[in-house]
Amino acid sequence: MNRREFSKSMLVMGVAAGTGPAAGGSKARAEAGAGFYAEPAKKLPIREFDVIVAGAGTGGVVAAIAAARQGATTAVIEVKGYPGGTATEGGTALHSFYNLWKAFPGVAKRQVVRGIPQEIIERLMKIGGCSGHAEMFEGYNYDSVCTAIDTELYKLVAFEMLVEAGVQVFVNTLLTGAIMDGARVRGVIVESRSGREAFYAKSFVDCTAYGDLAAFAGAKFTEPNDYPVCNSVGIGNVDIDKYHEFIKANKATGQLARGMRSGTPDQIVRAGAEWINVPGLAEGARKIGMALITTTVHDNYLMFIKCNLKLPVSPTSRDAVAKAELEIRKRLAKAVELFRQYVPGCEKAFMARTSPKLCIRRGRLVECDYDITLSDVIEGRHFDDEVMVYGFHDSAPRLQIKNGGTYGIPYRALCVKGIENLYACGMMITSDHEAHMSTRNTVACMGQGQGAGTAAALCAAKNLGTRDLKHTTLREALIGAAVHLEA
Ligand SMILES: Cc1cc2nc3c(=O)[nH]c(=O)nc-3n(C[C@H](O)[C@H](O)[C@H](O)COP(=O)(O)OP(=O)(O)OC[C@H]3O[C@@H](n4cnc5c(N)ncnc54)[C@H](O)[C@@H]3O)c2cc1C
């Protein structure tokens, strides 16, 4: 679906997408024909904030904390019952707080993402919810550290940090529309069991992964459908050391890292094989799109065994996704069966957790003032207006940042084109697939969140549009909040 088709369908359904708060009713009734129900217009209660962050996921948690810490009255709207997003549901570990120093002899080890993302890690460390920034001792051409998390503790820590910062956290609340005043977002429509409401604000950050708010606001977007969707299963009652031995014995070692596991330092926390040539297991895994890479922070748990599926259409299609949800659940059950059958130490394994819905690597691609290119990433380009620096690429060693260095994410790359007061953040930016394979990673999304949330608060304080904010002001605020901005 493109922007025009999306706007038309929203109008027919009676949702104002870029046409003002009262527009849904009468026009929709005029356009409604056979097969459509014309929803009557309705008065909604209004609440007012300085900043609204849509989606309390990987980027949204950090954006909302950052905005609130700048003094903005901040609301975050999250459809699930907890914050954390794909970082707690999809991936294998948080990539990456560091530059890729190990693959480049002579290059110094540097932590290049700090600020709120690092605070989350420190909080998790205190309660046994993180491996720490565990150094790779094999397979480090892909990354130099592995930061594995306990996903359930991550949700808790994120929730507590949001509340401590003073963010008003609206979980179990779906954002369903935008209220526009010309090119300015005036508010959003939200729905929950408490009813349908209008939330107004001065600045907005779209962190929904799907680009829902940007699409409702009438921003330009496309849907590249360039990745498989995935659900991942956490497998309990396993022996991680035996799993590691099995991978080693079959000469399939991928990345290995040691870190904190079940309270003991220097344990295997990442054991993975891109592929393994064990007859039966190999074919079985291939059939269900299963990858054998895992991380863990517990002795008896393999986290995030992924089963992938390529959809024929974009994952914004409810009906295609419904079919995929069932197919992937069958695959997850099969994955556990394969572990029980072939992997020593996993004979009595069981499905300990799955994601509540399938995860995506890209939904809508939202057009912003600047589009980060592959050459920006791999050449290690820096910008006058950057909000973070980053040093990881998911396709390393084939593609990686020059000389184990960093590139910058410019502020312009977060400003939604054509809209005066809306930022986009996370997996919805960066059109080039190969460049996106860097900017979409968790730690990049978190850093973008701190940049966008801080900027949104600064704009709201002075009633500025995103393009009126001086970068020196933003830079000062980011450095004051421990963001690392050196190349
Ligand atoms: C299978 C898989 C494996 C991955 N592996 C890794 C890995 O190992 N390491 C790594 O660093 N990265 C990995 N990634 C990439 C990374 O996890 C994501 O790109 C990143 O987490 C996306 O963050 P985000 O903030 O854009 O979105 P999300 O974290 O998905 O947050 C979006 C939030 O918005 C909410 N939301 C959406 N729509 C609405 C709405 N209309 N109203 C209210 N709330 C809404 C969602 O519920 C969600 O909480 C992986 C991704 C996938 C899918």
List the keywords.
single chain, alpha/beta, 5-stranded antiparallel β-sheet, binds flavin-adenine dinucleotide, 5-stranded parallel β-sheet, globular, 13 helices, 487 residues
Low-confidence parts: 11-25
Distance linking N and C termini: 39 Å
Q: What share of residues is helical?
A: 25-40%
Major beta-sheet overview: 5 strands, parallel
What general outline do the C-alpha atoms trace? globular
The gyration radius over C-alpha positions equals: 22 Å
Strand segment count: 21
Strand order of the largest sheet: 6-3-2-10-21
What is the typical, i.e. mean, pLDDT?
A: 92
Strand percentage: 15-25%
Bound molecules: flavin-adenine dinucleotide
Concise synopsis of the structure shown:
This protein is α/β, with parallel strands linked by helices. It contains 13 helices and 21 strands. Bound molecules: flavin-adenine dinucleotide.
Describe the protein's architecture and organization.
It is built from 13 helices and 21 strands. The protein is globular, with a radius of gyration of 22 Å. Strands 6-3-2-10-21 form a five-stranded parallel beta sheet. It has a five-stranded antiparallel beta sheet with strand order 5-4-13-14-15. The longest helix has 25 residues, at 318-342. α12 packs across α13 (471-480). Helix content is 30%, strand content 23%. It has 487 residues and is α/β, with parallel strands linked by helices. β7 (174-181) and β8 (184-192) form a beta hairpin. The chain has helices at 3-12, 23-31, 58-69, 115-126, 151-165, 212-216, 240-249, 281-287, 318-342, 374-378, 433-439, 442-462, 471-480; strands at residues 46-48, 51-54, 74-77, 130-138, 145-149, 168-170, 174-181, 184-192, 195-200, 203-206, 221-222, 229-236, 256-261, 264-273, 292-295, 301-309, 350-354, 365-366, 386-390, 407-410, 422-424. Mean pLDDT is 92; it is low at 11-25. Flavin-adenine dinucleotide (FAD) binds at residues 54-60, 77-80, 85-87, 90-95, 174-175, 207-210, 212, 230, 232, 306, 359-361, 426-427, 440-442, 445.
